[in-house]
Write a structure and sequence with these properties.
Blueprint lengths: L1 H27 L1 H16 L7 E4 L2 E8 L3 E7 L8 E9 L2 H4 L2 E3 L7 E9 L5 H16 L3 H15 L9 E7 L2 E10 L4 H17 L26
Antiparallel strand pairs: 1-2, 1-5, 2-3, 3-4, 6-8, 7-8
Helix pairs in contact: 4-6
């Protein structure tokens, strides 16, 4: 009887030890298992694939590699104030797909809406300026209309993505410093900076040639006061 009690006690101790050991191993390997689950999720649900431009949390870039425990991005943005590569490769744990929201620039619809603004003085001919900006956008975007329309039809069929219109538009608003004209148009996310540069150059050339349209910029005024020395008379 004594031997049986000792055996049972030892067995319970071993069971407790193994239970604690298993719990410790599970905690220690938790990240590995979650990363593996993330890898399965990426390959099964396909939230992104190699070649896609994505943003996960605060990190943005082009997916260049998918592995068992992490995926790699060619970083875009960060200190480069535009959608262009920094040259760095960022390795992201697969577990991030369960913790961070993901934005995919390449899936569903291959174009994004982009906006540029120009500020005019209150005495500018804003109607004329609006027509000129719209003409610039229409000329720049015309070659992409067929591609955009085809991509939009596919997106509507596959993911119910739809827009009221896909052609450029110019919006007007009154600000403290003057009249803001905002140009809104669809563009390829990988070509956004180059396209914006081309549009900006054309806008400056066109508006500066108009005597009744004046572009305004933020101006700061510094006022200096000089104190007079105290009078020595009397």
């Amino acid at each position: 009887m004594l031997i049986g009690n000792i055996w049972i006690t030892n067995f319970q101790s071993i069971t407790t030890f193994l239970g604690l050991l298993s719990a410790g191993i599970a905690i220690a390997l938790k990240d590995i298992f979650v990363n593996l689950a993330g890898w399965l999720f990426i390959y099964w649900k396909k939230p992104f694939d190699v070649g896609d431009r994505i943003q996960i949390g605060s990190i943005k870039g082009d997916v260049v590699d998918l592995r068992l425990f992490q995926f790699s991005l060619l970083e875009v943005g960060n200190w480069v104030d535009a959608d262009q590569a920094t040259g760095r490769i960022v390795h992201v744990p697969n577990a991030k797909v369960f913790m961070e929201a993901q934005a995919n620039y390449s899936q569903g619809f291959n174009y994004i809406w982009h906006e540029q603004s120009v500020m005019l003085s209150l005495d500018s001919d804003f109607k004329k300026a609006k027509e000129l900006l719209l003409a610039i956008l229409q000329a720049k975007c015309q070659s992409e209309y067929k591609n955009i329309e085809a991509a939009l039809l596919r997106a509507h069929k596959d993911q119910l993505i739809s827009f009221g219109h896909f052609t450029p538009i110019v919006y007007l608003s009154i600000q403290e410093r003057g009249i803001r004209l905002t140009m809104r148009y669809l563009c390829d996310p990988r070509k956004r900076r180059g396209f914006e540069d081309s549009v900006s150059e054309q806008v400056l050339q066109t508006l500066r040639a108009q005597p009744d349209i004046r572009i305004v910029y933020p101006i700061s005024t510094v006022q200096l006061e000089q104190k007079m020395p105290p009078s020595t008379n009397g």
